[in-house]
Amino acid sequence: MAAPSPGPREVLAASPEAGCKAVASRSGRRGLLWRLRDKQLRLGLFEISPGHELHRLTCMMQAGLWAATQVSVDHPPRGLPTEEDFSEVLTQVHKGFELGTLAGPAFAWLRHSLGLAEEDYQATLGPGGPYLQFLSTSKSSASFFLSHDQRFFLKTQRRREVRALLAHLPRYLQHLQRHPHSLLARLLEILHHHAERLLPRRPHRPEGKTIDLGPQRSWLLRQMELDTAFLRDLNLLDYSLLMASQQLQEDERGPGGSLLFRSARSVQGLQSLAEPGAQNLRLLPEGPNALHIVDGPEQRYFLGLVDLATVYGLRKRLEHLWKALRYPNRAFSTVSPALYARRLCQWVEAHTD
User: Closest Cα partner for 6 from 106, 99, 112?
Assistant: First the structure.
């Protein structure tokens, strides 16, 4: 059932102007040395403060996200998403702009299933602090942002990509239910007119060509097969596996460390044990299993499959034909979804121990 829109007072409670004033006040109190140190630690990230060309845009995004999330705060999800939830479009009128939330109840259910409190989500993405601009090397014309605490990542999408995401949303949620430790990025919300896509923040790529996973390698290879088979069946390609790493502390290494390895039966929220080998065995001792994290003997790895919206349609088929004719003896990324999935799995197998 579609959730009703909040009244005008709730929609305009966090106006763009309010967010801008909060940012300006806080920025004025920061010292020069603190700002220089902050920018040094966040290479490739720039605070979108007053005067930035994207400041007004991000203020509108913050106000729109705050109001959109207020709907699910007032009307939390009850049970699994319905067919109407997947097709709902909620348009809210703000001062100087309109913002539509696409399939809002379905994404609210996903956030709830991940243990993400709506009030926390709202506070992080609302006008409480400036967004950060992320300078990407992506060949697309998309814009990238991080929330002020760097917990959430925002990316603009083309209309055809948004349509693909919405078309596959029911199967996407079913896949995450069946495989709670899937490597697929968690898409938390889609908005229109700017159609932003939100997903958890990811660290930088690790150095080196081979990843030492020890006994966790077999799980990763199996989960890669399951996730890429799912994307292949959706006729998708051009997705990527992002990897990052950090050194394990001494007390985190080995079976006597602070991280526990238990059977898949102890995983919280496990929906199916039909494929126990597809479940990540790494569990934090006092909380649910952290997504996209695998511990090797020496390093902790953060993994995720991202960019899940490119369909192998007529445009990609023509691109494949043109490249095949122009570069007959060269390999390129525009191939069939089946070959793309198989090639990525083979790459992961060849670069892990």
Answer: 99
